[in-house]
Design goal:
By secondary structure, the protein is mainly beta. 6% of the residues lie in helices and 48% in strands. Strand 4 and strand 5 form a beta hairpin. The radius of gyration is 15 Å and the shape is globular.
Amino acid sequence: MARPEQTEIRMRLVVENPVPGVAYSLQDKASTPVDAKISKGSTLSFDFPVRISDGPKFYGEQVRSEGPERRFVYIAIGEQAGQKGSSWSRRMKIDIHTIPQTLLDKAAKGKTLEAVINGTGKDGTPACATITLLKPWRAV
């Protein structure tokens, strides 16, 4: 079967209000931490490539799937981000399958797609589960 034509785009997740002293990272398909950073309480940023094809369909080391349509990226926290002895072992799930085609087209022409998420939950601990974006995807 022929591989569909794919275009690489750049994506960025900005984590505002991360819990100080806690590690945050991207997580690849093997659940391995990628680009882990220990929070000092200031904004963290994670850049990564994603390949897209018609549909749109999403591919890449950070792209995870659930069912035939849902595609997302994980931000790992604490132990899952490689921080041994952390009190936390969590992940944030950030959906990418809902990004509008107009933004994907801009990214295919060289823009970076950026979304902002809150690194701290309402209870003051690291955010986890499916995350609602603080600021929606935009092309920068």
